[in-house]
Design brief:
Blueprint lengths: L6 H17 L6 H25 L10 E6 L4 E6 L3 E6 L2 E4 L6 H7 L5 H4 L21 E5 L6 E5 L1 H4 L4 H8 L5 H14 L8 E5 L2
Antiparallel strand pairs: 1-2, 2-5, 3-4, 3-6, 6-7
Helix pairs in contact: 1-2
Amino acid sequence: MGGAAAVELASRIFAESTLEIFESNTSRSEEDVLKQVQKAYSFANKKILEHVTQNPHHKGMGCTAELLAFSDQGFVLGHIGDSRTYRLRNGQLQQLTHDHTLVQQQVDEGLISSDRAKNHPLRNVILRAVGLDKELALDLIRGKIISGDLFLLCSDGLTAMVPDNQIQEILCSDIDINWKLDKLIETAKAAGGDDNVTVVMSAII
């Protein structure tokens, strides 16, 4: 979360917590993977809150988080905040997650239009994040996978700068996946690069 205390530490705690949870359980059943995803968020949330209790000057620290895990049946996706996960399938890009922001809430309630939301002065106000509250409101999404699927996990540093149709065009390029990663980041920077740009991709062979 840009502007909050010790944000890089919160993100690291989430990553380390996820690794710890998944390393201790190798089951690939959908229900077990779902439980691992939930446990990773809960564990990270608890650790961040404990850190803030011990370090009051870090009050307000937290992070948005995307966690994509694969089971024997398909994928399980955990989502909280305004980072996003997309899936490219048969040349069509689909946003799998829903932004947890004040502006998106206003769009959902019909108070403002989607076009106005793109440049709204409060578009960076996040309603949910890991490490802010004891009760974690987590979105869990499940689905099937097919050969050729391409998953994109990214921060709003990409999506605020590059429209979805341009992201789709880059992902559809007949070029190496590492080039696609670099191209997305370069495009976001060229468009202004107002925020950190994080991009992770996973291809189903």
